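Bumping with the actual sequence this time:
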Amino acid sequence: MELVNKLKVARFESFFSIIIGGLVSLSIIITAASVNNKDVNGVIDLAKGLEPLYGNFAIYF
């Protein structure tokens, strides 16, 4: 029974970490895109901010 509880806690911690990491990554991308492009109105504007790094493949990220 102890193992089941530990697995539940580990599952919750993993899920929580992924969500927080995603939010941090998203905020970094939005901030970086808004430095070069004054208006960030959608996903395409975010991709334009990543073009120097990824080139034409930026729209897939």
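The tokens above came from a reply further down the thread. The chain has one domain: 2-60.
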